[in-house]
Design goal:
Elements: E1 2-3, E2 10-18, H1 22-33, E3 38-42, H2 48-52, H3 55-73, H4 88-112, E4 115-119, E5 122-126, E6 129-132, E7 135-144, E8 148-150, E9 162-163, H5 165-168, E10 177-181, H6 185-197, E11 200-205, H7 216-228, E12 232-235, E13 239-244, E14 249-253, E15 259-261, E16 263-266, E17 270-272, E18 285-286, E19 289-290, E20 303-305, H8 316-330, E21 345-347, E22 353-357, H9 360-367, E23 370-376, H10 381-386, E24 391-397, E25 402-408, H11 416-424, H12 429-432, H13 444-453
The structure holds 1,4-dihydronicotinamide adenine dinucleotide (NAI).
């Protein structure tokens, strides 16, 4: 690794990447594989939000939560484990161990490739230069991949008891009463974790349902499950003030009595991270995001952008895919653009949500007539063994291919791979219905749903 600020030197590359998160490092890896000379600029750690503050550490928390729930439910299957006690310090140590191992592997991978990793704050100087300190990195192409930062609300002051997901990962103890502000992806994941750890949780969501981007049936199933878990939900109401005092936080909600909590988690979205010096480019923007075409090209020739910095889904695997597309485009290959509609999504709360493609409402809007099937996990042997409720919902354009798959239930996110193939390959239910699914697996539920949609239900009434 080299360091910035080493005395005004200049280096020439085919590609200079600003930001070593999912999009940036994936692009650097692929570009180096394709023989391009690459510099990768990062002020913090390779891996970005996903590895250090997002996907990986939070899913480790969710795993710890699942273990606690499993212990709590153990007596149902005849195993007595007693009441689980969560030691957040040891959960954090386990979580950090996972992150550290992955980080060591990733840095090993990146440094084993002919990539110049430049540590320091990068700044755009012009369409062919990134400066790190007084070192000028000249690139025939630039990739802007600075990622995203958490948003808060104008009336919210973060503090000891008012935190974002970053602060929630640093907690030393399990708070008794938690109010989660925002019932989107981060909100429901953390609500699920805190509930499993023993907190009394209330989610306040401005829209009328949780995870509002998902199919309505998914939101309803999640809300039912959360109600059973005694997670409080205030839906269709905005938070208007958050006031922290010495020993609690008061959360004012429009048209309702205030809520009191020991911790408020603010989860109202993430927005693009600033790109130092971007104004010098005069690049076209789409709101706060950098506007790009399907190949990640901005309005400035030679300058690309990818990941959370560009409009659309803010997901690590979308960033990886976009980074690869950028590298291949620069190398003169003809990569297929990443289409958000075909990007698989998993929300890791309990019950887990997986989805790809269109919701039923979106499909109706596009195709007019649609057919749907909801296969209830009550009929799925493995789900019964695990004691989970949920469903698989398939949406097809009438007489046409499957355009949306929606999964709810413990561990159902693991089925997203097959779901994505169905949507990405525009599969007809009649063609995929004969595919075998091993018994007993939760995966069978997808097969049963396809059978039902093809008009030949086996373990359902169709
Ligand atoms: P989000 O956009 O998913 O949800 C934010 C929610 O806050 C919205 O439902 C909004 O209506 C609500 N809200 C906004 N202002 C409010 C107010 N004053 N009162 C009440 N509710 C209010 O954003 P979130 O959950 O913060 O996640 C950020 C990004 O990170 C998302 O794009 C998400 O996809 C990504 N992410 C993905 C994960 C995954 O794939 N498993 C995990 C965590 C994050």
């Amino acid at each position: 690794m080299s360091r910035g600020g080493s005395g005004g030197e200049e280096s020439a590359y085919d590609l200079v990447v600003l930001g070593a998160g999912s999009a940036g490092y994936a692009c650097a890896l692929r570009a180096s594989q394709l023989g391009l000379r690459v510099a990768l600029v990062e002020r913090d750690k390779i891996g970005g939000t996903c590895l250090h503050r997002g996907c990986i550490p939070t899913k480790a928390m969710l795993h710890a939560a699942e273990v606690a729930d499993t212990a709590r439910a153990a007596s149902h299957v005849g195993v007595d484990l007693g009441t689980p006690r969560v030691d957040l310090g040891r959960v954090a140590a386990y979580r950090q161990g996972v992150v550290d191992r992955l980080y060591a592997g990733l840095t090993g991978l990146v440094t084993s490739r002919p990539i110049d990793v430049v540590t320091g704050e990068g700044r755009v100087v012009d369409a062919g230069t990134i400066a790190v300190g007084d070192r000028m990195l000249r690139g025939r192409h630039l990739l802007l991949a600075t990622g995203s930062v958490v948003k808060t609300l104008p009336f919210v002051t973060l503090g000891r008891r008012v935190v974002t997901s970053d602060g929630a990962l640093a907690l030393k103890g399990v708070p008794e009463r938690v109010v989660v502000l925002g019932g989107g992806v981060i909100g429901v994941e953390f609500a699920s974790v805190f509930c499993s750890f023993g907190s009394q949780v209330t989610i306040v969501e401005a829209l009328p349902r949780l995870v509002a981007a998902e199919d309505e049936a998914v939101s309803k199933a999640l809300q039912r499950a959360f109600r059973q878990r005694r997670i409080g939900m205030v839906l269709g109401a905005s938070v208007t003030a958050v006031t922290e005092s010495a020993d609690e936080v008061e959360v004012a909600v429009e048209g309702r009595e205030s809520l009191r909590a020991d911790l408020v988690l603010v989860a109202v979205g993430r927005g693009p991270a600033p790109v130092p010096g971007i104004e010098t480019l005069g690049v076209a923007m789409a709101g706060a995001h950098v506007a790009v075409d399907g190949l990640g090209r901005t309005s400035v020739p030679g300058v690309y952008a990818a990941g959370d910095l560009v409009p659309g889904l803010q997901l690590a695997h979308r960033g990886f895919a976009q980074g690869i597309v950028v590298a291949e485009d620069i190398a003169g290959l003809t990569p297929a653009p990443v289409v958000d509609e075909r990007v698989p999504r998993v929300t890791y709360c309990d019950p887990e949500i997986g989805s790809v493609g269109l919701t039923e409402a979106a499909a109706r809007e596009r195709y007019g007539e649609v057919e749907t099937v909801e296969y209830n996990l009550a009929g799925n042997g493995k789900s019964q063994i695990l004691g989970t409720k949920g469903f698989v919902k398939l949406v097809r354009a009438a007489g046409g291919p499957i355009v949306g798959v929606h999964l709810v239930g413990a561990r159902m996110g693991e089925q997203i791979g097959e779901a994505q193939l169905l949507v990405d390959w525009e599969a007809f239910p009649e063609d995929v219905a004969p595919l075998l699914h091993a018994h007993p697996t939760q995966n069978e539920a997808l097969g049963e749903a396809a059978l039902a949609l093809a008009g030949k239900p086996l373990h359902s009434h169709g």
